[in-house]
Structures
1.
Amino acid sequence: MSQAATDPASLPKAQWELYQPSMSPRVAHIVSVSGAQAVAIIERSAAAPVRVEIGATMTIPTPHASVVGLVSAVSVPIPDATAGRDDISLVELNLAGEIVVDRDTSRLVFRRGVSSLPSIGDGVHLADRQALTLAYTQPDSATIDVGTLYQNPTVPARLLVDDLFGKHFLIVGTTGCGKSSALTCILQSLLPEYKQARVVVLDIHNEYSAAFGQQAESIDPSSLNLPFWLLNFQELTVAFTSADEHRDAETEILGDAVLWAKRRYSDSFTGRARRSLDGQCITVDTPVPFRLADLVAYIDEQLGRLDRTAITLLYKRLKSRVETLVSDSRYSFMFGSLMIEDTMTDVLGRLFRVPVGDKPITVLNLSAVPAEIMDVVISVVSRLAFDLASWSDARLPILIVCEEAHRYAPADDGKKFMPTRQALARIAKEGRKYGVSLALITQRPSELDPTILSQCSTVIAMRLSTERDQSVVRANTHEGALDLLDFLPLLGDREAVVLGQGVVVPMRIRFNDLRNRKIAENQHAAFSRAWKHSQIDKETLAEIVRRWRAPAKPKY
């Protein structure tokens, strides 16, 4: 919105009328104004009555501006059953802003807030295309076109780039309503102009691998390189220790072993590599390489000094866990490297697109990552994104897209991996200062961590059926047009109500149809097709079992 918009009270009435947008026919008049709400009575005329729906945009001409309001309710307070009688029909409006004249350009602009309030008797009009375009677009701000207004398909629905991507946003909706397609539409609308964007998609169900074509770096466990030594100690503890009453004792042993292994590896450096570590205070959390072989050697050395069974059991359990992870091919992307090298720069460059090249999006396919280690992977990626953004002095803005966010950042404090939630909460609370932001996608907002949820400045609400989820969305939406959320159970596919700082005015939109472009693929099993045509023989089954069992030899 232009800051040069003139005060309508200082604009001569004749000049305002010269610039006033063309009005559609008058349909009602104001009978009550209270704060940000107004009530109007629909006028009956000889012509066919105008249909007024909830969510429609109305304009109210005043002497110095044209006030824009959203219909929040329509009613007949005293219905009459007598045939042929015309009932009094009321329209309730939430005042959203006003159209005024820009002092510098002498053009009409829309701004939030109302300084020229309507009064009793002022006419109410259905907003025409010119008024809708002024109210829902921002010509002086960076925006992307993601669809059309529900009430007028000829008017584009535009989202504010900086406010949407820089201040976290949330996409909610039931399964099958089009959340993945909505995200794909938003990102595909972003890429043509913003070729230096950096987006990391945490793809839980392998839906986005084909959505962005050559513009995405697609990474799955077979091509992922996320060295174990990048894990902080809390993440290493979850990976290596048992989730039982012995965890605290094993954690103490692991801390000593990791610190010993890191120092031993750093002592092996020579020349330039050695000088780069001089003066560093190495701790269990310092992101420097170490060898699992040294970790195991430390445990063996301690075992040789112990003779009490109760204590040696803890060392043996820890050693067994390390050897299991190293030998399991499912964890090879993290524990399977034959060579231990300081590849931190290469890992960060690939994950977070530095340099971007022609691939501003990283699709991290986590569908094949074992459930017991997935939270660790998400925690590492989120933490690295925050640290990279902060250490770069906000020169590398990064968007982290969290599919099924309620799975690894749940509201329940005691059932899930804490470091993941802490890493995401840190981004939610502090990320905007350093240029790292979140896009949370979930079908269960009521199960998402409330601290993270409350930091989302823009809500893209698609079809939601459960009252509990609707209530959570309402509680975390700071807007005067919450009545629009009453539509949530009735929204069709690709439809959404958008509220918050990412839009000029709360609006109901329909996302662009992506049928002629690549969209996020639905990976749900196609029962009808598979049961009709798919044939699996014993040889195919044997191959599946072979891959299932295939172990890798220890690589440390």
Note: The first strand starts at residue 26 and ends at 34.
2.
Amino acid sequence: MIRLEGEINSNIDRFVWYQQLFKILPVVVLIQLTVLIVTGSYRRFWRYTTINDLIFLARSLLISSVLIAIPRFLGLNPKNSDLFALSFGVLAINFLLALILLSTVRLLRYYLIEQRNIKKRLREFSDTQKRTLVVGAGEAGIEVIKSIQSHPELGLKVVGLLDDDVRKHRMIIENTKVLGAINDVKYFVSEKDIDQLIIALPSLSRSELKEIYNLCSHTGADVRTIPGVDQLAGGKVNIEQIRKLSMEDLLGREEIDLNTPEVLEFLKDKKVLVTGAGGSIGQELCLQLATKCNIKSICLLGKGENSVFNTLQSLYEKLGRDTDLEIVQKIADVRNKARIDSIFEEFKPDIVFHAAAHKHVYLMELNACEAFENNVIGTKTVAEISGKHKVKAFVLISTDKAVNPTSIMGSTKNLAEKATLITSKNYPGTKFTAVRFGNVLGSRGSVIQVWEKQIASGQAITVTDKEAIRYFMTIPEASQLVIQASAKAHTGEVMLLDMGEPVKIYDLAEQFIQLSGFSLDDVSIDIIGLKPGEKLYEELLTSDEFVDSRLTDQIFKAKIQTLISDEDLVVKFEEFTMLASHNENEVMKDKLRALLKELSLVKTNI
């Protein structure tokens, strides 16, 4: 009827047409129903219809249309046959009508149920709606809006979108208007009485995110974001991924590419042992090595069984429990020579990353002997055993506090570097290197963790000095650069990592308060003064005073001081080892001070 536009020439033609219709219709319907049942179209839950369900329905209807068209393909003519010989035009119209009607029924049911649920939840939470502005009108922004609209119980109401693409301005996306440019965010927050901003721009670089955050943070609205494109990995944004910005979001830099020929050659199919595997850097090193470096096996060595267990669980979360990577866990103290030797004998590592160390500046001031034993003797022990077992590379994780040390921790890490370099001369078959970097955001005992606890308990957050300056790096960034620097270094070298721009601790504290959802009037900042061993300013590791050469934009080779012979240093190590065994803390401090002066290191106010 549709094909003929309702026009049948005569009563006879009309009679013949209806006669053919009543013969053909039951057969066509039977074929279509049979195909829909066989293909499983009716087993799909209408209430949760998606575009994939509609595509599946279209395929099923297409199969039935092909089956019905077989007689026509075989040469039967509609004029000579009452049954099956349908014209291609009728078949096409039938396919489209069936698809439209069946799709409409499914979509209508889905829509009605969703609207009913949304309205029900909206009535329950209508009094607590937070007016929200989404920054970014791309795919991520659209997904954010969809997620919010389907979860009214969250109490969020999207008022508008902001985007720098002028072609989108004043357009309607998901019933939401694109109001204007991101630079005008302060105006729109005031104009629309906005309570919350969501930055939905996952492809932003760190610097771009920081710039947009600075614009948003001055509006007075709560600022949230979604994960970066590397974390989303092509998945849709859901409401659980909308979170507050962190210090890592703003101070971190771009991810380091570990898929380089040097790194691949250095680590591919290697057996890797990581000491201090339960610590912040040790755990992240294990994750980076296991997920990005195509190693053969990994040994998690640590003194604390709980922390090593946590690292193991983190690896399982990333790799799955059925991973082909061999994961070995060993609980041991790096000072126990016999235990470490037996572990090397059993595991036979190719590469060792030595991250085990005491790192807390103030606590090491109170425990100088323990600091020396763990940081120096522990390093010397693992390095010598690495050489003995002909490990291909030994990498010491060092610190910027080893530069012109003013603390026990810094001085012991400086001596650990020297112990590593001395060992490199005794075992030429192994590459011995050290890698220095500064403060790591989010590591255990870091200032960020201290502030989080202080804010959670309603206290003022503490800062040592208003002028104190530090260099910061995120845990993933530090670990990636350590791996890259290790691959590039030669034996007997100390590598430096570029820590980026210096940050005033006081400014960082203000930013942290705002990121925590408070204003500077809500949380006070107390100045408590520098603790023993702490510096007001950290040395810039990449200054000419310390740098011998540049390997990449972020990796440098350090200048090595040789103002005292290796033999004399070995004698000093033996003397200090005896002091540590008798717990002579004050004598240890005096001896360290004297040794550092002998090494002509300035600022030795320990």
Note: The radius of gyration is 34 Å.
